[in-house]
TrEMBL record, chain A:
Coiled-coil regions, chain positions: none
Segments forming domain STAS: 2-113
Gene3D superfamilies in alphabetical order: STAS domain (3.30.750.24)
InterPro entries (alphabetical): Bact_StressResp_Reg, STAS_dom, STAS_dom_sf
Protein name, UniProt field: STAS domain-containing protein
Domain of life: Bacteria
PROSITE patterns (UniProt xref): STAS
Automatic annotation (TrEMBL), chain C:
Pfam families linked to this entry: HATPase_c
Organism: Pseudomonas capeferrum
Molecular function as annotated in GO: ATP binding
Residue ranges annotated for the Histidine kinase/HSP90-like ATPase domain, each copy included: 37-131
Name by which UniProt lists this protein: ATP-binding protein
Keyword line: ATP-binding, Nucleotide-binding
Entry-linked SUPFAM superfamilies: ATPase domain of HSP90 chaperone/DNA topoisomerase II/histidine kinase
Amino acid sequence: MERIPILQMGEFLLVTIQVDMHDQLALRLQDDLTDRIEHTSARGVLIDISALDMVDSFIGRMIATISGLSRIMDAETVLVGMQPAVAITLVELGLTLPGVSTALNVDRGMHLLRKRVGRP
Amino acid sequence: MAALQSSTLEAIVGNQAQLQRSWLEALEAKGAARNIREQDLRQETRDFLQLVIDGLGRESSTHIGAEGWEETRRFLEKLSASRAQVGQESHQTAFFIFALKGPLFDLLQAHYREQPALLAEQLWEISSLFDAFGLHTIRTYQKNREAVIKRQQEELLELSTPVVKLWEGVLALPLIGTLDSQRSQTVMESLLQRIVDTGSEIAIIDITGVPTVDTLVAQHLLKTVTAIRLMGADCIISGVRPQIAQTIVHLGLDLGTLTTKSNLADALKLALSRLGTTAGERV
Amino acid sequence: MTIREHGSQPVRIEQDVVLARQLTRKLASDCGMRLVDLTKLVTAVSELARNTVVYGGGGDMDWEVIEEAGRTGVRLVFRDEGPGIADIKLALTDGWTSGSGLGLGLTGARRLVDEFELDTAPGRGTRVMITRWI
């Protein structure tokens, strides 16, 4: 079964989305991630979408849901690497992901996560 | 319609040098040689005359779309482009062709002195051929001019959106002049791209130089701010004058998390303090 | 208006949404569409193709590369034989949804393209035509 890999880096999880996702794959990722947060007691999740050339309302909703779910499970989510054209399109689409933290790249996202969970 | 006689071609070939001389004189007299080096003009007239002779040898048709005239058409297209570049006007470019008509007519008149019917016919043929050449030049000239104008518009648009790096991690976009929809879009795109390219975490959009802010511009600004946040950077709007603030409030726009400062210096101060905090914790 | 190229692609199952996006991306980039405009068009296609699969029970996407008044455009028609939409006005309201989505599909897609035409009635299926000019 096709899956998007989830990497563990200490107490954080890293997901790099590189494929043109169909909806089932997105839903599976959502389930996989919550499972992994539970099993690893991860404190943070980084979702790297720098390779995605499109985010529609479905993927947007998945990201918002992951962010909301992980918060309930005491983990912070940071979305990193959104391309300019994707950001402009999302704004036009009316999807501004208000509750989701963002960072320019994985490196910055990691700093932000550390700050959020109180690790200097 | 009768075609061009081979005798006409022979007359032209036999008097090539003389034709070119008279042609150059005509160009000189009409001022069509201005801004063009004499040496270039000499070369161009020689080449064109040769092309006409070659063309007439191949092609009996005076319809310049015909295959035999392809090289000549190409030559004229190149000529048009170079004339548009040096800023000559379209009629001056067309005149390059038309100035050859006089010397040619004189030549044919002498050549067909004894055959008035044939003279009229050949004059008509030559005339329509050259008119077609002239029109072709004008058409290509206009196309080239339009391309030049389009390129200049694009360059102007680029120039009017200078994204500058103020500090490590801080970009500024000083906007000057009226913002229309297209310009707002270009501004937004180039700022977002620079944020990615430079990895800058804070962007300052300074609107001191923007005379008025209407609904559309305000909305564009808000969209830009939102897009920047989605990408993971921060945006500060500076130079918000009282009357622009009033407009924004009056329009009932939801400014939400928008950070504004009255001038660029204050915005930079805020940006540095934000970065400073982050930098301090980044050990 | 002249049609330079045209074709049709089935939009029946979820994977077809991905294929519809990929085809649109290729058409738009072959016409030299700017990246931002191309991204907007592909996103609109994703929303509409999903609607066709999820709400329309599957259908087709007809595509055309058109020329009009010296400009080039990509025009796409999504059509299905599904239940149709009873209240068009409501369907074009932000946040309204009949299913589990965010309700941004139709309204969002409309904002992402230059031309948008919705033709539907209960029991008559749905037909959405979008155009993005270059």
